[in-house]
Amino acid sequence: MKHDEKRDEMLAAEYALGTLRGGARLQFQKRVAAEPALAARVARWQNMFSTLDDHLAPVAPPERVWKRIALELPDKRPARKSRPYFGWLVAASLAALTVIAWYSTRAPEFAPLVVLNDAQQRGQWVVSADAQRQHLSVTPLKPNALATQNSLQLWLIPGGQAPISLGLLQADAPTQVTLRHAALAPDATLAISLEPKGGSPTGLPTGPVLYSGKL
Length: 215
Known about the structure:
Layout: H1 3-17, H2 22-34, H3 36-49, H4 63-72, H5 85-105, E1 111-117, E2 123-129, E3 135-140, E4 150-157, E5 164-169, E6 175-178, E7 189-196, E8 209-214
Antiparallel strand pairs: 1-2, 2-3, 3-6, 4-5, 4-7, 7-8
Helix pairs in contact: 1-3, 2-3
């Protein structure tokens, strides 16, 4: 795939996921309206992404979440006239605590990074990364059952170096990976191999590489 085609493919994936924003999204929308081939790429990504959450069931938040929200809301009673600033001080403190808690607990936002293809060059997995490239989300486009005696293992292969294990993947659901001692170099490759249950016993791929994609 040529560089321009690869770039359009990634932009189409970002657009379909909703992570392409601002002026870049508006500019891309104009291209989609004027370029039928690009519109087809977007439609294909939207079709693939539309089934990713079919296996997810709604989860009601725990009761403690509602209690915490109720406790952090400002008191509705009028402030005492002798200390009119006190209510504002309490509200500001609660707002600051809420913001700090939100920043400390929110999940990182991911943008598509690379598509991992099978031997027939068909896209099978989407790998997304956060802005700092410290966290990855690896999502199967067509979730499949995996034999109980096998595991799927993700590898980072820097140019000219030995593969580095990034951990095991779920075959039928997205997996989040944290890059602790590895960096995503521009010439690196991400690959998924079929390994024995629990992963490679040697620290290197022992089974066939099923999917791969170059950064």
